Amino acid sequence: METKCDRSAWLKGPAFPCEVLPANVARPWRLVLLGAPGVGKGTQAELLTQRLGACHLSTGDIFRTAKCLGEDERSPAMTAALEYMRRGDLVPDATVLQLVRERVNCLRCGGGFLLDGFPRTVAQAEALQALLEEQHLALDAVLSFELPIDEIVARLAGRRTCNGCKAVYHVTGLPPKKEGICDQCGGPLVQREDDRPESVRVRMEVYEKSTAPLTDFYRRLGLLVPVAAQPFPEGTLARTLAALQSRDGNGRTPRSLSAQRV
Ligand code: AP5
């Protein structure tokens, strides 16, 4: 099964309904993707979306989409959020939670969801638990991607992103066929503003202080699934699918996984 999800509602706001109904999935997966900046969460989310049919929901993508709006189209909170992001700091919880609450319908998507970059603080994780309870939903697992810091820094330094369709490449690990040009849409490949060394340093410090404690939070809830995020994206995907399959051994049939081979 290959699914192409439409993330209109998530990226453009609640007034834009999702135009693609989820594919015929055996069961929806509701997952959180945790891990340091650059560990490969976005890359895995894209691969998992194709395999599981769940929507890839990234708070970072919402902020990057907002960057393309004219200044008069952005709310003051969003303008402030973009400045935090440029520096590598976290956007304040209140702004992030408002954005997520506005898009709560995405959490109810029949195909499930992959939350990438949210939650990022314990306060956000507690708010997500409350939001899911209100919606009578529960997380299936929290995937915690792990990689030594020097490899993460190398991944961020070589990352290039398409200005058009947002596809992600790496100058050596995952190069485009033609240098600087997106294979998928022909758009120009650029380096993200927050991948500059000074922003990366701040992002790593913020991660250690604010986001790393989330692993304990989710371990206590019995949801944490550690996954080694190397050496190649396909290997990480295989380990992730195997880990989900073994978690699903409690009577539920993981047809959406077993029907496919990695
Ligand atoms: P966000 O967009 O969430 O960024 P991030 O968490 O810093 O993660 P990245 O997108 O940088 O990395 P990734 O793990 O997705 O790696 P990727 O797959 O691209 O957030 C950005 C900013 O927004 C934050 O700093 C903050 O300001 C704000 N923000 C967002 N959410 C927020 C929230 N909830 N609260 C507060 N603020 C928030 O991979 C990286 C590179 O490695 C690529 O080049 C890829 O090709 C390569 N690669 C991937 N996997 C592999 C592999 N297995 N082997 C070799 N290379 C690989």
Give the topology.
Blueprint: H1 8-12, E1 29-34, H2 41-52, E2 55-58, H3 59-67, H4 76-87, H5 93-102, H6 104-107, E3 112-116, H7 122-134, E4 141-146, H8 149-158, E5 159-162, E6 168-170, E7 189-190, H9 197-211, H10 214-220, E8 224-228, H11 233-247, H12 255-258
Parallel strand pairs: 1-3, 1-4, 2-3, 4-8
Antiparallel strand pairs: 5-6, 5-7
Helix pairs in contact: 2-11, 3-4, 5-7
- Work out the oligomeric state of the chains in this entry: single chain
Number of extended strands: 8
- Point out poorly predicted stretches: 251-256, 258-262
Major β-sheet, in short? Answer: 5 strands, parallel
Shape: globular
Q: Label the structural class.
A: alpha/beta
Q: Averaged pLDDT, please?
A: 88
Radius of gyration: 18 Å
What distance separates the N and C termini? 12 Å
Number of helical elements:
12
Q: Secondary-structure element sequence?
A: HEHEHHHHEHEHEEEHHEHH
Task: State the main characteristics.
262 residues, alpha/beta, five-stranded parallel beta sheet, three-stranded antiparallel beta sheet, 12 helices, 8 strands, globular, binds BIS(adenosine)-5'-pentaphosphate
Describe this entry's structure for a reader.
The chain has twelve helices and eight strands. The protein has helices at 8-12, 41-52, 59-67, 76-87, 93-102, 104-107, 122-134, 149-158, 197-211, 214-220, 233-247, 255-258, and strands spanning 29-34, 55-58, 112-116, 141-146, 159-162, 168-170, 189-190, 224-228. The radius of gyration is 18 Å and the shape is globular. Helix 2 (41-52) packs across helix 11 (233-247) and helix 5 packs parallel to helix 7 (122-134). Bound molecules: BIS(adenosine)-5'-pentaphosphate. BIS(adenosine)-5'-pentaphosphate (AP5) binds at residues 35, 37-43, 58-60, 63, 84-85, 88-91, 96, 117-118, 120, 124, 155, 158-159, 168-170, 173-174, 194, 203, 229-230, 232-233, 236. Residues 35, 37-43, 58-60, 63, 84-85, 88-91, 96, 117-118, 120, 124, 155, 158-159, 168-170, 173-174, 194, 203, 229-230, 232-233, 236 line the site of BIS(adenosine)-5'-pentaphosphate (AP5).
